[in-house]
Each structure stands twice: as structure tokens, then as C-alpha cells.
Amino acid sequence: MDDETNDKEFLARRFEEYRGHLRSVAYRMLGSLTEADDAVQEAWLRLSRTEERAEAEEIENLGGWLTTVVARVSLSMLRSRRIRREESLDAEFFVPDPIIERIEGGTGTGGSASDDPEQQALLADSVGLALLVVLQTLTPAERLAFVLHDMFAVPFEEIAPIVERTPAAARQLASRARRRVQGTAPVPDPDIAQQRRVVDAFLAAARGGDFEALLTVLDPNAVLRADAGVLPGAAASRLVRGAHAVAEQVMGFRQLAEFSRPALVNGAYGLVTAPGGVPVSVAGFTVVNGRILEMNLLADPERLGRLDLTVLGAFPAAEEK
């Protein structure tokens, strides 16, 4: 085995030590698992371009170096995404990619069947969909400063050159982002059993077509965000506000409720709907004070097809319901 092969294997081993962490950073920055994987892959390509093992060994803090690379790539992606939305007049949000776990034995506890260390790293410290939605309202620089400092304890001295600001200015970016997050992102009820009771009541009301029962489990200021992709006659994204309006939307799709099954979605109780055994939507719920305050619904077939739903096991076919 020649030296070049040894060098590449050495780099690959070192990189794998940080892959899960890097994917977590990119996911919080981008809210997209596919884009997060692209950012991580770009970090690997840049590391692999180091010509010799000695050159890689000279990087004093490889984890920090890789985090910086992923942050820069993610920042570029965010800025490009913002420009595309401005040009296409798309909605100012998209439903983030959900991270899904199986609920074992009806107990309400998570139990991912995945042995993938990258997936396990995301699950270990998964961030709620509601927070990811709020992060989208920040400028790319604010989001980077907040994610790196508040979520991963990266010093402002290291954040500053990424956003091309002074450390003091980077601190201000994170401070503005923090105020926005604290003032906007709802804090969900932490008890999964409580979340389950509320969502199960919601599902029972939807299956029974009981409009009044839906209203009792929805917060008066409930919000529904839905991404249906390019389905015929459907907007790419939809934002519905108010319990009455949200309940009306749910009633319009109540025939699908019988095919819904529970799952943990970004650490909270949620639902996956799969008529005929084919997943058509993933719903994440934010339960606050015993009522549903937010629903984030992903129904884009293309994006659903890229999610790893194998952790949920086989879906019941329509005739089995």
C-alpha cells in the first residue's frame, strides 16, 4: 500500500470522527438533511485536497477547522436560498426536514432502529421543528452566529472571520438572534406522555370529523405550516393561522387520519400518514400548555422520498386498517 493511500485512509478516519457533529451543525443551519449532507461532503472534499498526511496533522484543531468549513458552506447555501426566494416570490418559510424515531410498544418512548452513527448524533440532541422555523426568520449571518455560539459553544473570535465581522459585531449578531428566538420560538410541554394525550385527542377528533373537539385541543393562536411540494393544484407552502382556520384545514383531509400512526418527530410526539403503506405526510406538533400551538406538515413527495423512514418499520396497508 503506497503512502498516498495511507494518507487518504488516515484523513478518512479522522473525518469520520467528526461527521455526526458536522451534520448536526449543518442541519441546524439549513433545516434540510439533504443540504446538510451536501455541506458535510464539501467539507470532506476540502480536507481530502490536503496533499499529504503531514499537512492535515498540522491543523491544530481539526474539529474546529471542519466546523468552520461546514459553517462557511452552509452560510453560502443560506444566502443563495434567500436570493432564490426573493426572485421567485416564494413564501418566507419552508417546513424543515423532520428527524423521525419509532415509538416503541405504545409507551411513548423513542427507539430508533437505526445503527447509523450520523442519525444517532442528530437524534441525541435533536432540535424542535418550531425552533428551526424561527431560525429561518434570521438573516444568514445571525443564524450562523446563534447556531455556532449558542448551540455549539464556538467562540466569537472564531465566528467573526466566517461572517466577516469583528468579534464584537459577531456577538451582536448572536444577541439579536437570541432575542428573536426567545421572543418567538414556543417552548413545548416537555412531557411526551402529555404530548401524546393531546395529539391522540386531535387524531381521534379528526378521524371522527368532530370539529368542536378539534377546537378544544387547538390553541386559539394555532398555526399550521404545510409543504405539499409540487402536487397538482397545491401551493408549495401554506401558512394557516387561528384554531378555527386550522380545524377547517384538518377537516378537509380527515379521510387520511385513519392511516396515521405515531412517531417521534424531532423529539416530540408526531404522526406519519401512510395510506396503502405509502407515506404521504409527516406532521410535527408543538404542544404548549396542553394544547397544539403549531403543526408543521411535510407532504412533499420528493422530500419525503429522501427521508429515512425505515426506522418506523413496515407501514400497515390500507386494507389492514
Automatic annotation (TrEMBL):
Boundaries of every RNA polymerase sigma factor 70 region 4 type domain copy: 130-180
Positions of the RNA polymerase sigma-70 region domain: 15-82
Record keyword Transcription regulation present: yes
Keyword Protein transport part of the UniProt annotation: no
SUPFAM superfamilies in alphabetical order: NTF2-like (SSF54427), Sigma2 domain of RNA polymerase sigma factors (SSF88946), Sigma3 and sigma4 domains of RNA polymerase sigma factors (SSF88659)
Keywords recorded for this protein, A-Z: Sigma factor, Transcription, Transcription regulation
Family, as annotated: Belongs to the sigma-70 factor family. ECF subfamily.
Subunit note: Interacts transiently with the RNA polymerase catalytic core formed by RpoA, RpoB, RpoC and RpoZ (2 alpha, 1 beta, 1 beta' and 1 omega subunit) to form the RNA polymerase holoenzyme that can initiate transcription.
Protein name: Sigma-70 family RNA polymerase sigma factor
